[in-house]
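Hi R.,

Here's the chain you asked about this morning:
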Amino acid sequence: MTRRQGLSASLKLSARLKLTVSYAGFLLVAGAVLLAVVWVFLLRYVPDSPQGLLGVSPNRYLLVRTFIPAAAQAMMFLLVFGLVGGWVLAGRMLAPLTRIADAARTVTNGSLSHRIRMEGPEDEFRELADVFDTMLERLESHVAEQQRFAANASHELRTPLAISQALLDVARDDPAQNGDELVERLHTVNARAIDLTEALLLLSRADRRTFTRESVDLSLAAEEAAETLLPLAEQRGISLVVTGGTTRAVGSAALVLRMVTNLVQNAVVHNLPTGGTVTVHTESQHDASVLRVENTGRPLPPELVPVLTEPFQRGTDRARTDEHAGVGLGLAIVHSIVRAHDGTLDLAPRPTGGLVVTIRLPGGHRAPAAGRAR
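And the predicted structure, written out as tokens:
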């Protein structure tokens, strides 16, 4: 047994002893009160008799000689019974905590799949065990997600490096190859690697929540993102519309702008070949600031929608070769930013194709609404 385990056992024993002493002490106090009541009752109803030696009634003298030894025996019995019964009851009461402690010790050794699954009545111990199981489920899911992310990130980072190595090997083996073409291809691959690295750094920053919170206008962020991506939308023949009024949220202006830009870029890239639309709408609802991005596009399978926010997920095969498709972290970054701002993200496929993304962030002070369209 390790020192920590020995200390844990000592603490559990101490708690059991405290409960045992508490049970026994309460039982002794209750017994003493009961005996006092009986003594008063007997004194009141013992018949008077002629005064005996030293002015003490013989009846009461006999009562004292009889009652006090019996009361002492009763108190001794209560003490022993309280200690034994308290020890047993304390053990039964602490048994669920022992199971929870054993489960925590198992998790400490690396087994996140262990669950308590405590049965019995819906009491505080059952509630604690259920909360512990829920925590383990989320922790196991988070660790599995991080492991998948690390594996995918390693693969994505290795790909441009492998391509660069292959291009350099070809250039070394064939000195007569066009150098300008090689430089251009290396530049493209290197830019892709830089974009991926920056996206990973942004994702890590959002997860750490190391940013200053301030009042941010979602409508201005939507306008700026639309201005930036309007040439891309016009190039693809897609109508980009921004509507809604001033919508104040609390958070990082830089992260919120990246969140909106990623959503609009995804909406433009994952759209119809021509004639598609993208609508960006902002509004205030109660204590929340709402951003909604809706686009046309191909119908999405319902089972694909929940995994779109996972890292390196792309909606269509076409997007894998699209120069504007990014590195597969767009919605993952959006999800991370929303979570860092204590908001909610909802994805819903449109019946006719495309996606509706709704984000709710904690709202700031409200301002009069005014519609705008592009």
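The mean pLDDT is 79.

Let me know if you need anything else.
M.
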